[in-house]
Design a protein that fits this description.
With 375 residues, the chain is α+β, with helices and mostly antiparallel strands. The protein is built from nine helices and 20 strands. The strands form four sheets. It has a five-stranded antiparallel beta sheet with strand order 1-2-5-4-13. Strands 3-14-15-12-11 form a five-stranded antiparallel beta sheet. A five-stranded mixed beta sheet has the order 6-7-8-9-10.
């Protein structure tokens, strides 16, 4: 198997990434929210400049794929007109902020996230994938999602916790962002080429005691498709939003805004609950436990097509399914009950493991997989 290339950075708007079907341009909505007009404008941009789809990422961002290099400047101008482009590329790189998605306008989560955005220029130079989570709702929802520094509800108030540490530092709303910036500086002073994420650094370097001691608060249940007090939640199979279908849904529901989550779910603020065929409306749908990367030919490293097979296998797998175009396993970091890894046009099978784990069977065809028992 050809060893896949692991990128040390994520695409952005100012710094897109070339893929098999063109440029990948990432949009980072502030507080994971777009107004209805912004969302409709992004749908139009995806159809005009991209391949007609918008991808949800596990960092609550949106990606346009298939953008021609000749169209990039026109796309950036359109994003700027929509208020979806940072004027300063350096700020865009630092604005890796997850927010607990059921926040309300002006609440603690919204205030803390906005203050962090306003003070991003005070951060030191950080690795491109370094990120933050503002998880200050009644229960913590983001503990399994990628972040290096977490602002969370603790058992006795707010805490600031380094990823990988069991406890954090007690803070107040007034000093939370200041202390977060101080923790990024400690990280920047101690990081190495082998430890460019917080959890890896504190596994090898002792975290000062001032950043420990306060226990985090209770964990919440992962939200699922259905109705919330803010509006309906829908699932996007494989994290893919067909732009025309999304535009039609926003219009038909009369939603005021679109919110993005890290879990292939999106929320339509104030929208009517509808049942669009393109999106998932039930938490029991097997597509909600199925991951598949774009695959070939969209990704130059993928060695197989992925999503059509994933759709076919999802109802008969009987558990979490991951179909990966190569051994990188970009679509799912953790293990799945069944993981299929592309290898020279065929698939290697991993049971209860990750894409990079040793397979129990190799060289399987799509027909083999459709006719064998994968449960």
């Amino acid at each position: 198997m050809t060893k896949p290339v692991v990128q040390g950075w994520c695409p952005g708007a100012h710094r897109p990434m070339m893929s098999g079907d063109g440029l990948v341009v990432r949009v980072r909505p502030r507080l994971a929210r777009l107004t209805a007009d912004q969302a409709l404008g992004l749908c139009d941009a995806a159809e005009h400049f991209g391949n007609g789809t918008i991808d949800l990422t596990n960092r609550s961002n949106l990606q346009l794929r298939g953008v021609k290099e000749a169209d990039l400047q026109a796309l950036l101008s359109a994003l700027s007109d929509l208020g979806l482009l940072d004027a300063e590329p350096g700020i865009e790189v630092k604005r890796n902020i997850l927010v607990s998605p059921l926040y309300q306008k002006g609440d603690l989560t919204a205030r803390l996230a906005q203050e962090l955005i306003d003070r991003l220029d005070e951060l030191p130079a950080l690795p491109a994938k370094f990120g933050f989570a503002v998880d200050t709702g009644p229960e913590r929802l983001l503990t399994q999602d990628s972040a290096d520094i977490r602002v969370e509800r603790g058992q006795g108030g707010l805490i600031l916790r380094a990823d990988g540490a069991e406890t954090g530092r007690s803070v107040t709303e007034r000093d939370a962002t200041t202390q977060l910036i101080a923790l990024t500086r400690w990280f920047s002073e101690n990081t190495t080429q082998d430890a460019r994420r917080m959890a890896r650094l504190i596994a090898s370097t002792e975290l000062p005691i001032i950043w420990q001691g306060s226990a985090p608060g209770p964990l919440g249940n992962r939200i699922e498709p259905g109705q919330t007090f803010l509006g309906p939640l829908y699932g996007a199979p494989f994290g893919q939003l067909p732009a025309r279908a999304l535009s039609d849904l926003i219009g038909a529901s009369r939603a005021s805004a679109l919110r993005i989550t890290p879990w292939r779910l999106f929320l339509l603020e104030g929208g009517a609950a509808l049942t669009p065929a393109e999106f998932v409306t039930s938490g029991t749908d097997p597509l909600m436990t199925t991951d598949a990367c774009p695959g070939a030919p969209l990704c130059p490293q993928a060695q197989v097509e992925t999503r059509a097979l994933a759709r076919s296998l999802a109802p008969i797998t009987g558990g979490a399914l991951h179909v990966s175009g190569c051994a990188k396993g970009c679509a799912r970091i953790g293990p799945a009950d069944v993981t299929l890894v592309g290898n020279a046009g065929r698939f290697d099978l991993v049971k209860r493991g990750r894409a990079g784990d040793e397979p129990c069977q190799r060289g399987l065809t799509a027909h083999d997989l459709m006719t064998m028992d994968l449960t």
